[in-house]
Amino acid sequence: MPEVIMPKMGDAMEEGTLLQWLKSEGEEVSEGDPIAEIETDKVTMELEAEDAGTLAQLIASEGQDVPVGEAIAFIQGEGEEVPEVSEGGGEAEDEAEEGGEEDGGGAQATATETGAPEEEETEEETGGQTDGRADGHFRASPIVRRLAEENDLDLAKIDGSGPAGRIVERDVRGAMESGTAQRTEDGAAQEDGVAAPEQAQPQQAEMQGFQPARLPEPTEEPGTQLVEPTRMMQVIGERMTEAQQHIPHFYATVEVRMDAAMALRKQLNEQLEEEGVKLSVNDFVMKACAVALRSYPNLNALYTTRGVELHEKVDMAMAVALDQGLITPVIRDIGSKGLAAISQESKDLATRARDGKLQPDEYQGGTITVSNMGMFGIESFTAIINPPQAAIVAVSSIAKRPDYDENGQVVPASMMKLTLSADHRIANGRDGALYMAEVKRVLENPVMLMV
Amino acid sequence: MAETKTYREALREAMVHELDNDESVVLMGEDIGVYGGTHLITDGLYDEYGPNRIMDVPISENGFTGAAVGMAMMGMRPVVEMMTWNFSFLAADQIIQNAAKVRYFSGGQVEVPLVIRGPNGGGVQLSAQHTHSLESFYGHFPGLKVVAPVTPNDVKGMMLTAIRDPNPVIFLEAGALYGTKGEVEEGDNAVPFGKARVAREGSDVTLIAYGRQVNLCLRAADTLSEDGFEAEVIDLRSLRPFDEDTIVESVEKTHRAVAVQEQWRWFGVASEVAAIIQDRAFDSLDAPVERVSGAEVPGPYARNLELMAFPSEKQVTNAARRVLYEEEK
Predict the structure, then answer these.
(1) CB contact at 8 A, B76 and B24
(2) Smallest Cα–Cα separation from A105: which of A113, A114, A95?
(3) What is the DSSP annotation of B288-305?
(4) Closest Cα to residue A127, out of A69, A187, A65?
(5) What is the CATH T-level fold of the domain A136-230, as seen in this structure?
(6) Domain that holds residue B268
(7) What's the ipTM?
(8) B287 and A162 in contact by Cβ < 8 A?
């Protein structure tokens, strides 16, 4: 009988929240019918039935966090019987390896994005029954906890193969051999829900973005309102905490005279108007950041378990603010793309990001990030590195200021501040300074953007 | 020097050894003299030592056990045979109320160097009233020592220790194994109480048993070995005093444990083993301690039912597989 499993919607996805059943137990479903609404850390999606039959058993309850690959329901075909719900994660896990790739026997349901506009999370702690970590607490045997502590392992990175997802010794030994569970200071925060605020106890089990034990109780006074964090808010909070605390940031700010770039932009936009292209300042900045990386490639890198991975291609993540959070869709190989292509792609990504319609592979990966708050008139700011990347460039507003020309005469100038945040484990101050100087040079001589 | 002997011969040898060494040692029991013993443990001793050392007693367990307690209080070293331990219920008042407590009552002035021995456990189709494993029953009472040797060498060595002990010793023999053979050390091979024996070394799971179930565990260990799992088998031998350290050290090595007993699960030795492990080796555990016990029914007579009511090799191997998080077979 086909199992409906929690699909894997991206590399970093370990679990999803079953927000709502759209069909009830015993209801007939046809192939392609939406049967449930699922929230990942990034998007809300509808899960479609891949088989026709009776929705025989709803295993997961609404609000429950379900690990990827674990059955959430069964679709009963004619003459089939409902199997016993397997307690162990064992079988389900094999399927998790295959992810949502729909390769025959594996996943029996696909998620399609419907851009469910509101994220009406019911983040209840009901999930614990089938999952070793659903409520942020891990099921792990005592020896596992001891080994994790002695070897500085992050249990969040280890899948439990014991009953109810319990992490058992062999899981840890496997992870120790492969080196995949080291508690690292790098971009390991790719994982969901595992960031470790400093106040936290060493026990991973205690770790969650919001720690009841350490935080004050709500006052519940009149005039207050209690807002539960959405899943996305939690993930952002955890990842940023992790990044801020574990990555040794350093910062370098340059002030760029944008007159030439603005003039070029105006000229290009006039030329491209008929094609419906309107280049933004940010398009220029992103392109400039990519061009400058040709000379300083060590900032186009990921901090991994086994060293710094340098990337030839620049996959540029751009921070897009959402009503309920933040997402960083990625322009792949931006260095090979022209300004018009970049402009179109960034607009498309930003629009779909706000509509909640990004595909997971569109917001995962990325080798460097640009975050722009210029549109809000921000004079200068620093950004937190988007792990495991090496750097992020914070783009501020363009302001008219008096400046000196070559003859020492005071002239009006359009100035913009760019602030680099870089991982000191990957690059030193000089690298960052030279890189920012190169970005400045490219933007002030925007013809460089054409090469 | 060691020689191959049966469990029965080794047991007799220990008693003979002490009969020869210590005049205060006497054997008492139903039909142990002229008849040679229902299980032939004392066969031939009557002829050699006479009726004053090898005493036939009437069918009155409470009476002759009480007499033995009194004799022990007066400085003799009686070794009392229960034809089977099932009959000791009749003598329980003497054993529990007097033997176990006189030393305490007298502020240590009066010792009770008494051994009560006999076949314990079932497995030979003697039905419900003759199928009991009484180690947790007697092990419950402070003042009694309780031992359950399984090898011929241990039964000899522990009987020597039992007779020499100044306290009442409940000596539970593996009745079904009287005819089994093993190497037995010559001479005085006294085995101390409170020291478990590692019957087989292994690294993946610890099987803990005593008495006849040790052999079951050894067979299970061989089966597990075929699948690549090396079980360590611990023979407790002595249940009071109890050797916690050997178990704890083993579990610290293997991280998994299965306790096996023939008696019923509730309030049994296996539960005590599990409690000790969680208490002292908690941080070494990879899985909850499993217990394998007899079925919660009075001992059945029918052979097929009796086999089902006793721990089987399959139950032990599957319990081991569970703590190893492997598929049961």
Answers:
(1) yes
(2) A95
(3) PPEEEEE-SSPPPSSHHH
(4) A65
(5) Dihydrolipoamide Transferase (4.10.320)
(6) 197-323
(7) 0.77
(8) yes
Q: Which among A421, A415, A414 is positioned nearest to A436, based on CA atoms? A: A421
Residue B98 has pLDDT above 50, yes or no: yes
Q: What's the mean pLDDT in B186-205?
A: 97
Q: Please check whether residue A140 is in contact with residue A89, taking contact to mean a CB–CB distance below 8 angstroms.
A: no
CATH of the domain at B313: 3.40.50.920
Closest CA to A227 of A128, A127, A120: A120
Angle, CA B24 vertex, CA B21 and CA B26 arms, to 5°: 95
Q: Does B266 touch chain A (CB under 8 A)?
A: no
Count structural domains, chain B. Answer: 2
Sheet containing B77-81: order of strands = B54-56, B25-29, B77-81, B115-120, B169-174, B145-147, B238-240
Question: What gap in Å lies between CA B99 and CA B103, rounded to an integer?
Answer: 8
Q: Which of B203, B286, B290 is the best mutation test for A, with the most CBs of A within 10 A?
A: B286
CB pair distance less than 8 Å for B287 and A170: no
Would you mind telling me the total number of residues written for chain B in this entry?
329
CATH code of the domain in which B135 resides: 3.40.50.970
Which of B185, B219, B254 delimits the end of a domain? B185
Treating both helix axes as pointing N-terminal to C-terminal, what angle do A259-272 and A281-293 enclose, rounded to 10 degrees? 110
The reported pLDDT for the residue numbered A155 is: 87
Last residue of a domain, one of B185, B211, B233: B185
| Residue in B closest to A150 by C-alpha | B283
Whole-number Å distance between alpha carbons of A169 and A161: 10
Residues β-bridged to residue B15: none
Kindly report the CATH class assigned to A247-450: alpha beta
Indicate which of B325, B326, B327, B328 best probes the interface with A, i.e. most A CBs within 10 Å of its own CB. B325
Q: Which of A214-228, A370-384, B256-270 has the lowest mean pLDDT?
A: A214-228
- Catalytically active residues of B are 61, 130
Mean pLDDT of B296-310: 94
The reply to whether residue A141 touches residue B284, judged by beta carbons under 8 angstroms, is no
CB–CB of B286 and A161 under 8 A?
no
Q: What is the pLDDT of residue A213?
A: 52
Give the Cα separation of B93 and B69 in Å (integer): 11
Within-domain flag for B55: yes
Euclidean distance between CA atoms A426 and A249, whole angstroms: 10
Q: Which residues of B touch A168 (CB under 8 A)?
A: 286-287, 325
User: What are the residues facing A318 on neighbouring strands?
Assistant: A370
**Would you state the structure tokens that stand for residue A437, as one six-digit string?**
């100087």
Q: Which residue has the tokens 């909070």?
A: A237
Mutate to test the interface with B, among A87, A145, A169 (most CBs of B within 10 A): A169
User: Which residues of chain A are at the B interface, by a Cβ-Cβ cutoff of 8 Å?
Assistant: 141-146, 161-163, 168-170
The distance in angstroms from the start CA to the end CA of chain A is 58
- Pull the structure tokens for residue B235: 């023979």
- The label of the residue with tokens 């030994």 reads A173
- Residue A189 clears pLDDT 80, i.e. is over it: no
Per DSSP, the three-state class of A136 is coil
Predicted pLDDT of residue A84: 55
Residues across chain A: 451
